[in-house]
Amino acid sequence: MASRTKSAEQTALDVYLERLLDHLAIETKTIETVLSELPGCARYENLSVQMKQDLTMRRAHADEIRMLLGRHGHPAPAAHETVSSILNTVSSLLHSGEENSLLKSILTDISYRSYQIASLDILILLANRLGFTSDLSTLDRLRTEENTSIGLIQKNLPNILTEYLSNMR
Fold first, then answer.
1. Would you list the DSSP string of 82-95?
2. Which InterPro entries does the UniProt entry name for this protein (predicted)?
3. Which of 38, 40, 91, 151 has a 20 to 30 A CA-CA distance from 49?
4. Structural domains in the chain plus CATH codes
């Protein structure tokens, strides 16, 4: 194995900042997705209400991640494409055979949320290791909000599906 110079080695802080950037990218992509899907879901009241609430939450989460980046002297970029590109590829593979766009949207949303929760879990571990206690409280709250939100989707899924099926007739 080749030896790396001290300046080329990545620190735990570097990893933490990269993960924050990746998390910001998925939040940004999710906001874009919700904005594009919202008009098509307007006739599904339960889903539309939840999507509007989630959009507000997503925007607040993106702002909080930007704040965490700024706190550590790293301004958030205008766009961070890596994770968004990967998730687009994964999403298209997962849903390529799905004919229904509403169900595809719900599955994509659940996929994004699962990724976000796992991302927050990693960020919490890194922040803990680095001793960033104020970051920990923010990240814990964001994870709690994500878990609550995905729980609401799962709870409302039967109503959303019933509403969808009744609109098919």
1. HHHHHHHHHHHHHT
2. DUF892_YciF-like, Ferritin-like, Ferritin-like_SF
3. 91
4. 11-76+102-168 (1.20.1260.10)
